[in-house]
Design goal:
By secondary structure, the chain is of the alpha/beta class. It contains three helices and eight strands. It has one domain: D-tyrosyl-tRNA(Tyr) deacylase (D-tyrosyl-trna(Tyr) Deacylase, Chain: A), CATH 3.50.80.10. It starts with a strand and ends with a strand.
């Protein structure tokens, strides 16, 4: 399972001109599901995404008395920000041969949809606000990437 996480000030997904999911400050998570992914892969990514320290914290008790911002000090759970999950099978692309990407290792649509839905449901059990795109739809994703901070995760690379 692969995830591309973007630290956003805001993000939304539109399908046919209608907003289907939107968040304020938090993570936009593009999720790619491989054919050999398991629930263990899912649990690993959920734990990693919710505990990665990618947010800043203002330390009012800095040595200089003026305070300072500490980047990469707080997790999304610490900040209670939001998550928008968008399925993106193109993260599963293999571009090693030729000029056209191969998606032969991506999960078939039925399997991917089931895993995607489970991923979203498990993510919601963290207590965070979780919005989502529409599986297998042509989506327009709008975002304000803050930082910019973008992190790539792969459950197979532990």
């Amino acid at each position: 399972m692969k995830a591309l996480i973007q630290h956003v000030r805001e993000a939304r997904v539109e399908v046919e001109g209608k907003i289907v999911g939107q968040i304020g400050r938090g993570f936009l998570v593009f999720l790619g599901i491989m054919a050999d992914d398991t629930e263990e892969d899912m649990d690993f990514l959920i734990d990693k995404i919710t505990n990665l320290r990618l947010f800043k914290h203002f330390d009012e008790e800095a040595d200089d008395g003026k305070g300072k911002e500490n980047y990469f000090d707080k997790s999304i759970l610490d900040k209670n920000h939001e998550i928008l999950v968008v399925s993106q099978f193109t993260l599963c692309a293999n571009t090693n041969k030729g000029r056209r990407p191969s998606f032969d290792k991506a999960a078939p649509p039925d399997q991917a949809k089931e895993m995607y839905n489970k991923f979203v449901q498990k993510l919601k059990t963290t207590g965070l606000t979780v919005a989502e795109g529409e599986f297998q739809a042509m989506m327009n994703v709008h975002l304000v990437n803050e930082g910019p901070i973008t992190i790539q995760l792969d459950s197979k690379e532990r």
